[in-house]
Amino acid sequence: MARRPSARAAKHAQRARPPVTNPCAPGQSGGQYQPLTPSQVRRIYAESLRILDEIGMADVPPVLLEKALDYGAKLNDGGRLCYPPAMVEKVIAGACKQFTFYGRDPKHDIEVGGDKVYFGTGGAAVQTLDLHSGQYRPSTLTDLHDFTRLVDQLPNVAWFTRCCVATDVPDLYELDINTAYALLKGTTKPVATSFTLPEHVAPIVEMFDMAMGGKGKFAQRPFCKAHISPVISPLKYGEDAVMVALECMKYGVPMSNIVAGMTGATSPAPLAGTLALTLAETIAALIMVNVFEPGYPMIFSNWPLVIDLRTGAFRGGGGEMALLNAASAQLSNSLGLPSGCGSSMTDAKAPDAQMGMEKALSALACGLAGGNMVYESSGMMASLLGASFEAFVMDDEMLSHVHRTIRGIEVTDEDLGFESIKAAVAGSGHFIDATETMMSMERDYYYPKLASREEPIVWQESGSLDHWDRAKVKAQQLLQHQPSYLDPEIDLEIRQNFPILLT
To answer: Cα(247)–Cα(193) distance, rounded to whole angstroms?
Structure first.
């Protein structure tokens, strides 16, 4: 005869259940951390206006030059295209302030703008940390599909940008097509990709239309945005990227126009100078879009980056990266624009203590500063040269803690608990059995599943696994997920019309 569970066991079981409501859901309201004072924000913005007005942009494609001059721009004596402050402020006033970044499944839709914070991916890693050997090797198309399937199950990664380059696909057209196809196969979250050439946009949108059920369907719910870098620091347009952007606009593809000046290399070494220059350059990207179509959905993605001034190499971790990108989010938000910033670009090669320190520092700073879309926030390693399955799993849990911190502390009469304090003092002397304790347990506390919280003896008896070991096991479990997000007939049609290489 089975024994009835004891009251103690029942209590333990109750407390082991997951919270009824997620205490650290994505989309928390940021803006609590402001590394710049209001006067510093105004001064940096004024300097960016001065840069655009007096120095201006070089290498302007003719199609943009004509439009910008008609809109109020001017050419200076050196032939550089300059934007007067009145023109800049007119563009900002008419620019998109908020838009929906759709998932193929509506439950994944994101409202971009305002004060909501979401974390996602970025990067173009050419190496993958092999899940089995623990060694780096060239990234493949299969890796990209595997990363997509993994992220499909990670609740804090709100959208998936292709995080690695399929180095086994040398043809540029086939690379862009198969990258987009891997995203379609692996997730219904919002996704993002890059287009190597403008002529690759139309066929990929055609493939997206097929996946959505017919011509024009993608434009009704654009679930994929383009990552474009139309400005080359310092203060030059990149014609190829500009033309890709214009082609994306024809088909309603939202854009993240990314500016990534590097301190001491392509932007000034003093942090304030980098912020002024990269803000000016990101405004130049905004102008590029809005002179053609005011209000077009664009994420204002100012990602100031850092180099090690001793060696000249890019460095993704450290306090300067956290500070610069938090300040960037603050500047973008001060203009009321949908903001994008970068975090978690660790220099660590392994999912170790250095990785955890560097990633958590910048993710927390950007989240608290209120970056609407925080890129690179999971999975990336080795100064963006590598991507890791274990790191994705670790970072997803780290981001729960970040969301919980951003959420802050609610202060109400109930939360202050005067009556509960009075009852405990007069009675049991503790709060373990208080009604408020159970309510708070469900509402206010996050309980990690990956991090170890056992006593040492329990940890030893369980195999003494470290964080990397546990993440490896979890990633292998998650990769058993084999979603079927494409109808077989649609999948066959896509394969008949495009050079799909993924088996």
So the answer is: 14
Locate 175 and state its tokens.
């690379």
Beta-carbon contacts of 61 under 8 Å, excluding residues fewer than 6 positions away, are 237, 239, 242, 243
Please tell me whether residue 303 adopts helix, strand or coil conformation: coil
Report yes or no: 160 and 148 within 8 Å, Cβ to Cβ: yes
pLDDT in tens, the chain (503 residues): 444 445 555 544 544 455 567 999 999 999 999 999 999 999 999 999 999 999 999 999 999 999 999 999 999 999 999 999 999 999 999 999 999 999 999 999 999 999 999 999 998 999 999 999 999 999 999 999 999 999 999 999 999 999 999 999 999 999 999 999 999 999 999 999 999 999 999 999 999 999 999 999 999 999 999 999 999 999 999 999 999 999 999 999 999 999 999 999 999 999 999 999 999 999 999 999 999 999 999 999 999 999 999 999 999 999 999 999 999 999 999 999 999 999 999 999 999 999 999 999 999 999 999 999 999 999 999 999 999 999 999 999 999 999 999 999 999 998 999 999 999 999 999 999 888 898 899 899 999 999 999 999 999 999 999 999 999 999 999 999 999 899 999 999 999 999 999 98
pTM: 0.93
Beta bridge partners of 141: none
Q: Are 338 and 324 in contact (CB under 8 A)?
A: no
Q: Dihedrals φ, ψ of 397, to 5°?
A: -70, -40
Stated as kind and residue range, the H or E segment containing 440 is helix 435-444
CATH numbers and ranges of domains, the chain: 92-407 (3.20.20.480)
Secondary structure percentages of the chain, helix, strand, coil, to 5: 45, 15, 40
Residue 285, SS3 per DSSP: helix
Strand 110-113 with 74-75, pairing: unpaired
